[in-house]
Design goal:
alpha/beta; homodimer; six-stranded parallel sheet; Rossmann fold; peptidoglycan synthesis (chains A, B); cell shape (chains A, B); 2 domains
């Protein structure tokens, strides 16, 4: 069905909306020569509050949207899909390799923690799913995980309120209880949160190491492609190929906020 | 098809999610003897960013969910449906009377303003649809409407941050430019916003009259039922009949926040 992908084939990345652009940015930073194919299911965002059956159906659709463009691998930038439907993506994409943002973040956090007390922040849905704690404890059952939902962080990021007193106050309210638990590592378990990284870092202080799952998955991508001899040979950074299922208001300004660059053309696809 | 509804039949109210509970609360306050039937389409919230075709299909589904329980009238508590699909509801519910929250708020604002400068706040989708400005100018083309999207107000309300410094800072950022335009009337064009009414009032000051669309639609409901001889004769406030399409996390605490009372049983319906 598919032609065999080669080193010059694109890396496919999908998310439920715009948040996965932080993963695009991290992958471009780590691997500037790679072609990137991004699908954001902006018509059906957010996935978090939906049932598992629905999320698994969406994960299949999203994977198919990428497969039509012959990627060499797939990165699941959506924490919800990583938690509840990674096997659906693996099955649909077989034999292509699949990396999930959640497992990458959890693995790096386990490597980094010294006192085995890890904080995880995410949306209500991610925190309630307990998926990070599960992934972390599968690697090391001794680690204590302290989770906290931060529902205001996504709209604060989308409003571009990255350096506001209101954001600092809210960050203190969400994060100081975790600091009080003595964590030495904090996982940003939502793709939007890197936008607020500076405020988050200031709030938790220098003793807490921040794990950005987007950066973690970019590092793993690099390692994996290198081992497989599938790194692209380009040196010029190609423009990402963007696909969305609905063109949301403010998409252009969100793109600039997430990517620090002007938005290229966007393809509207039906799912 | 339907039995003829009588004065003791319920008032049907629907919204895309929990926000419409502010309308339930206002109607119960104005008409404590009425039975209330509420449907919140919590599986498909939010409607705002979706296409008009999809919103019109959802409006039909929501109306049918209420019609199965033989209401005597229908209140559209959802600003998005009021703006884009009120005719769909009217057609499906015919010959029952239908009231939309948007028209009720717009009409009251036009009655109240003295200097003909009205502010409207709502979600990005409501503000971009320009529906309040259109409804207001249809009643009085001389009125100047100043709109502002306040995307953080819904999550701040849902977090219960009704008396926080962060909320005050954000309210100032959103509302002071409207006050600077010399408005004398401010429409709360989103069903969540009454939760933050105190902060909003403090921010805009006593010279600006707040129009709560939920209260406005409750007043119109009372007038309409009275004229039609359809007011219920009960004196004991009956427990609302709640239906949702998905049971969201935190539904119980949101219900308490919106209604100031404990949540009754909730029926899960498929749409």
């Amino acid at each position: 069905m598919h032609r065999n992908p080669g080193p010059e084939s694109p890396i496919g990345i999908f998310d439920s909306g715009v948040g996965g652009l932080t993963v695009v940015k991290a992958v471009r930073h780590a691997l500037p020569g790679e072609r990137i194919l991004y699908f954001g299911d902006t018509a059906r965002v957010p996935y978090g509050p939906k049932s598992q059956v629905t999320i698994r159906r969406y994960a299949e659709d999203d994977t198919q949207a990428l497969l039509r463009h012959q990627p060499k691998m797939i990165i699941v930038a959506c924490n919800t899909v990583s938690a509840l439907a990674l096997d659906v993506v693996e099955h649909a994409a077989d034999p292509l390799p699949v990396l999930g943002v959640l497992e990458a973040g959890a693995t790096l956090a386990v490597e980094v923690t010294k006192n085995r007390r890890i904080g995880v922040i995410g949306t209500q849905a991610t925190v309630c799913s307990n998926a990070y704690a599960y992934a972390i404890n599968r690697l090391d059952p001794q680690i204590e995980v302290f989770s906290r939902a931060c529902p205001l962080f996504v709209p604060l990021a989308e409003e571009g309120m990255v350096n506001d007193e209101a954001t600092r106050l809210i960050a203190r309210q969400y994060l100081l209880p975790l600091v009080g638990e003595g964590i030495d590592t904090l996982v940003l378990g939502c793709t939007h949160y890197p936008i607020l990284r500076r405020v988050i870092e200031e709030t938790v202080g220098p003793a807490v190491r921040i794990i950005d799952s987007a950066e973690a998955v970019a590092t793993r991508t690099e390692t994996m492609l290198m081992k497989a001899g599938m790194l692209a040979s380009r040196t010029e950074p190609p423009v990402p190929h963007l696909m969305v299922s609905d063109l949301p208001q403010k998409f252009g300004s969100l793109y600039r906020l997430f990517m620090d660059s002007e938005m290229p053309d966007v393809e509207l696809v039906e799912v």
